[in-house]
Design brief:
The chain is an alpha/beta fold. The chain is 34% helix and 19% strand.
């Protein structure tokens, strides 16, 4: 359990009631709905939705397959580009990617084709008697993948297809990364993340070794020597700090820590509940934290951001979810001081009101206080420097707190590649991480085969 919140009460609702509150956020389309929605697609040539998809799924093609009642073909088309297409259909911000690019947005009805829901429909209703992709002949090459999140899994699957053997080193007990530990429970329900991992592994040639943390149980130097290539998909494991006094007081916690506990809980009624809580941040993690606390039964949930709504990292869709769950979105407020009670526990927070002056954020001189039993930090993740402590790891070039890679996902050290959130390339999205893994696998394969030919 989360030690810093142990002094808080448990939810008043029973476990079954709470489980119902964390049911599927977006119920799936039925057959009739999918048929009607797929018929709306214009099957554009050079479709803008494809250009907007980070994983380059042939969207018109798979939707046309659905319209032709070829669900298997639609699923195969999706998975050939994105092996984690099921989870991406559920968590990807399609409203600002493929659906925003849909030409139907400028049509008379001003509503895009529901691409994400059609993608989910195809994958949920396809029934493969065996894995839809077959491995190539064994190459004898072994690649180490560090991290079993979306980037690592995607890379491993594509490498296995090419006939390579892959060992994934994962620090946690379960594979899946953010899909397993960091996404709101109502977005990925019914243990979907693990079922998707099991499906991916059916391709063969992939071994996952759990309890293996880079910097503690593994060194990059050893992996570099023992394997033909290394792919780093280690994410951003550390939460950013507010940088103020009493930040470690009982009642202050990283939002990702609580979300992880919530997603792994079999009985939500045993989680600590802050009747009044503050979430600091403006991204999807902040929204996920605030909404889940509200669904657990919190009476007063405030999400506070130092800038305005337009600057929030969370999409309008996510912000609407927060408002629908009675989360109060407070903007133009900067955390100034954690307020404690006589027992040294959180009782609230003082904020400084902010404004923009010549493009720079400044305090107005006004302050206000919010009462709270807990404060959740969701101000972003940063690199865990403990993962890269050996001499070879320290030599990797960085872009700020991220690893520097080129367009082929190569780091500054030959034979070592990286992708996903631990790099500064692209967006911090599940679908982007999947694409990184796929591209890195193709680059690794090309280089290994080039070396074979040269030999």
């Amino acid at each position: 359990m989360i030690d810093s919140l142990n002094h808080l009460p448990r939810p008043g609702a029973e476990a079954a009631t709470l489980a119902d509150r964390f049911g599927d956020l977006a119920p799936p389309l039925n057959h009739r709905q999918a048929a009607l929605e797929s018929a709306r697609c214009l099957y554009c040539y050079d479709a803008p939705c494809v250009n907007a998809c980070p994983s380059e799924i042939d969207i018109p093609s798979f939707i046309h397959n659905i319209q032709q009642e070829n669900v298997q073909g639609a699923a195969q088309k999706i998975l050939s580009a994105n092996i984690l297409g099921g989870s991406c259909a559920r968590v990807c911000p399609t409203e600002v990617l493929c659906q925003q690019a849909c030409v139907r947005n400028s049509h008379q009805e001003c509503a895009p084709v529901l691409i994400g829901q059609l993608q989910r429909y195809a994958l949920d209703n396809a029934h493969f008697s065996e894995h839809p992709f077959q491995r190539a002949a064994a190459t004898g090459k072994r690649i180490a993948v560090v991290g079993a999140g979306p980037a690592g899994l995607s890379c491993a699957h594509r490498l296995a297809l090419h006939g390579h053997d892959v060992v994934i080193f994962e620090a946690r007990k379960k594979a899946g990364g953010l899909n397993e530990y960091g996404i709101a429970k109502y977005k990925l329900v019914d243990d979907f993340a693990q079922r998707e991992v099991d499906f991916l592994l059916e391709v063969g040639g992939i071994e996952i070794r759990h309890g293996q943390r880079l910097g503690t149980d593994l060194s990059l130097s050893e992996l570099h020597q023992q394997f033909d290539a290394v792919f780093l998909a280690i994410g951003l494991a550390a939460s950013r700090a507010l940088g103020m006094a009493d930040e470690d007081a009982p009642g202050v916690l990283a939002a990702t820590t609580y979300i992880r506990e919530l997603r792994q809980s079999d009985d939500l009624s045993q989680l600590p509940l802050a009747d009044r809580c503050i979430v600091i941040g403006a991204g999807n993690t902040a929204i996920d934290m605030a909404v889940q606390m509200a669904r657990l039964g919190a009476r007063d949930v405030n999400l506070v951001y130092r800038r305005g709504h337009a600057d929030m990292g969370a999409t309008e869709h996510e912000q609407a979810i927060a408002r629908d769950n009675q989360v109060r979105l407070l903007t133009w407020a900067r955390p100034e001081q954690v307020l404690l009670n006589d027992a040294g526990q959180v009782r609230g927070m003082r904020f400084a009101r902010t404004r923009l002056v010549d493009g720079r954020l400044q305090d107005t001189g006004e302050t206000f206080e919010l009462a709270a039993d807990a404060i959740f930090k969701a101000i972003g993740q940063t690199f865990d420097d403990g993962a890269l402590i050996d001499s070879l790891a320290r030599s990797l070039a960085r872009d700020g707190d991220r690893l520097q890679v080129d367009e082929q996902l190569r780091t500054s050290v030959p034979g070592i590649y990286a992708g996903g959130d631990c790099t500064a390339l692209g967006q911090d999205l599940t679908v982007q991480a999947v694409q990184h893994g796929k591209l890195a696998a193709e680059a690794i394969h090309a280089q290994l085969m080039l070396n074979v030919e040269a030999a």
